[in-house]
Amino acid sequence: MSRIISAFERLRRENNRGLVAYITAGDPSPGHTVELILALEQGGADIIELGVPFSDPIADGPVIQKAGERALRAGTTFPKVLDILRNLRTRSEIPVIIFTYLNPIMRYGFARFASDAAAAGADGALLTDLNIEEAGLYLAEMQKHGLDPVFLVSQTTPDDRLRVLSRSSAGFVYLVSRAGVTGERDRVSDQARRLIERTRRVTDLPLAVGFGLSKPEHMRALAPYADAAVVGSAFMRVIEEHQDAPDLADRMCGLAARLKEGLRIPVEAEDGR
Predict the structure, then answer these.
(1) Which is catalytic among the residues 27, 41, 46, 60?
(2) Is the pTM of this model over 0.90?
(3) Do residues 227 and 206 make contact, with C-beta atoms less than 8 angstroms apart?
(4) Which one of 31, 71, 89, 179 is at 20 to 30 Å from 78 when CA atoms are compared?
């Protein structure tokens, strides 16, 4: 059983919802990332999305784009991301999903990517711009190395495609709560619950909702319906604003704790799922 599925089974036993925390590897430097992940875990993060910095991050908003730029300036490459993951595995068993784009992985090679990622301690991957019709080799290599492929679905995904993407996913399905790129928003999209309901009709996998989530009230709005919330830009903004502060890790931990508290739901709310 993968670490990801184990995490969701634990959450289900606890009548709890998961916090999937995104962090760009190498921001503000490769030497910081393990400590910041450990801080997120201490604050209550259940799964880590470890972002590979990329020069053309089309799905990311300005906060994560800037994080990628800082990480690239600091010399972060995909091999260094794997080094970070290997170092993390000496101190933590938190599930880790590698979050990246198709171009750098095609250049690295699907087979080499899956083999090296698994050896470093990854649990899965999300390639944001990989077309499912062209994912055969990728899926075969992921399965061969015991990694969970996670795919994105959105409100514009037709039902037949929603079914295919859900079948091709493992670990969980990532639901995009709103159109557009990542980034903080004032409120959860009204369409998020409808997308959750549509996706539940075609899969038994856990459902994680992301894009635009940054506040405890967002967590409380989703907790009765989704299995997890994905938060990225809010954490990366903390790094952007406090990257030189000695209490950066404490700030990351504190934000994770506040968000996680919003995901704790009373037993009577379980019927809303």
Answers:
(1) 60
(2) yes
(3) yes
(4) 179
